[in-house]
Amino acid sequence: MKKYIDFKLRSVVVLGLGILLFSGCERDLSDDVRFATFNTNPDIFTDDPVGLTDEFFESFDPATGANPEGFGTDNDVAFEGSSSIRIDVPAPDDPDGSFIGGIFRDRGEGRDLTGFDALTFYARGSTTATIGEVGFGNDFGENKFVVLAQNIRLSTDWRKVIIPIPDPSKLVQERGMFSFSAGSQSTNGFGFTFWIDELRFEKLGTIAQAQPSILGGNEGRFPTTVGGSLTIGQLQQTFNLESGINQTVIPAPSYFNFKSSDPNVAFVSELGEVTVVNTGTTEISASLAGVRAEGGILVESSATAQIISIFSDLFADVPVDNFNGFFENQTTLGGVVNENGNDIIQYTDLNFVSINFFSEENRIDASEMTTLNLQIRVDEAVDPGDFIRLELNNFLNGVESGSSFTIASSELIANEFVDFSIPLSSFEGLTDRSGLGLLFFVSDGTISSISVDNIFFSVE
After folding, report:
1. Distance (Å, rounded) from C-alpha 189 to C-alpha 77?
2. Which of 272, 205, 207, 206 is nearest to 238 (CA)?
């Protein structure tokens, strides 16, 4: 069972330690060494912004749909004191932009946050809704230590939100004080308002049981050749809060310490970029703040490995016409969606559905391939008699031929991705694979909701 996402790369920054000055050979060195120190003020917004740039709110790029007009302060609503931050989330058809989001930056050289273990604030909504993302570390610059928490639930009452810091020792000079992004997905397209107050970093001392993971805690294989590369994704860390609730955050790769068991085969950078330099095998693992992360990758590099990827964050994908053919008599809805920062294919009301690459220029020549690889998650209970039938159709000189392979209920797990490597010889009757154009998923209504990821052909 494997999951991968493509996490955006961050740049590397080197912190200078300053220059040692000597005023006399008889004085002890420790009397003269002065390391750079930065502001340790934890407050970001109380009744006013604290130590932020003059812009206060810096919007994400309007060219991406960000609405810069819905941000302000409210002197009539506050959790404590006399004012709060007010954010008006637009409807999708708002001419100024379909979502609102941006950052707050420290006006100085950055703050030393090593003495804190969480970003906290109080929030309430005009209705029950969800803030898509909140976090810190984004300064529209290097963004090396970004942390995000997703789908923050709002109530019409004030509630405290806690975003744990994965490793405070990394934050010796941080400018990105806060970031957020919100749309109207949780309100069926209706705009709403939410307020934030008492925004600061804190040392709570009650955040425990850190559980970091890569690849969603799953083990994966990366068959490749010399020169192959990938970026390790689906990075997470889960903490237990004093309330007993588990809070998961998405840390930037630079919080992790990545390791290759054989760097002569493949090495991994601080940013989670794996580069394959020789044939052989190596295991890629990671830790965060001294805690071993769940999940890892077995890199298998050989001279003969070949890949044709339809949908995967691991490899460059071939062109696809669409991920839902919407055939006659089909009830299936869905297509590509983003889940926790990772693109997956999600289908609902499934009876049958196809991924289409049948236009002549997009057909796949899989004649030299031996295996169809994919991951399937059944997003409901799995009952005896349930099945998913895979069908491959080939187009040659105007003639369509095809064959199928059935995955029984005993091989499926509810709400978990299962890894399948199916020999193409199992598709009996598919004697020609030089012009593959359709991949069907058929349940005949026995299963109505599935998610699919990492679909590729390979030579095993």
Report:
1. 25
2. 207
Last residue of one domain, picked from the residues 256, 273, 303: 303
pLDDT digits (tens, 9 = 90+) for 7-49: 222 222 322 323 223 334 444 444 454 456 899 999 999 999 9
CA 202 to CA 172: how far, in whole Å? 15
Whether the CB-CB separation of 325 and 356 falls below 8 Å is answered with: yes
Please answer whether residues 147 and 113 qualify as being in contact, where contact means their C-beta atoms are separated by less than 8 angstroms: no
Which residues does 301 contact at the CB level (< 8 Å), separation at least 6?
224, 225, 226, 228, 265, 266, 276, 278, 279, 280, 281
User: Nearest 5°: phi and psi at 125?
Assistant: -120, 160
> Which residues 6+ apart lie within 8 Å of 26 measured at CB?
none
The two tokens of residue 239 are: 């903490």
Residues 313, 437 within the same domain: yes
98-151 pLDDT, tens digit each: 999 999 999 999 999 999 999 999 999 999 999 999 999 999 999 999 999 999
222 band by pLDDT with thresholds 50, 70 and 90: confident
Residues 317 and 401 in one domain: yes
Residues 286 and 334 in one domain: no
Q: How far, in Å, CA of 427 to CA of 90, rounded? A: 50
Q: For residue 297, what are the domain limits?
A: 1-36+210-303
Angstrom distances, CA of residue 278 to CA of 42, 187, 261, 311: 48, 51, 13, 26
Q: With b meaning 16 or more CB within 10 Å and e meaning fewer, what string describes 125-163? A: bbeebbbbbbbbbbbeebbbbbbbbbebebeeebeebbb
| In a shared domain, residues 74 and 143 | yes
Residue 188, phi then psi, degrees to nearest 5: 55, 40
Alpha-carbon distance of 368 to 459, in angstroms, equals: 7
Q: What per-residue string of b and e applies to 303-317 under the rule 16 or more CB within 10 Å gives b?
A: eebbbbbbbbbbbee
| CATH number of the domain encompassing residue 70 | 2.60.120.430
- Do 354 and 406 lie in a common domain? yes
Query: What count of residues does the chain have?
Result: 460
pLDDT at 35: 55
Question: What is the DSSP annotation of 262-307?
Answer: -TTTEEE-TT-EEEE-SSEEEEEEEEETTEEPB-EEEEEE-SS--E
Counting Cα atoms < 13 Å in the Cβ hemisphere of 18 gives 9
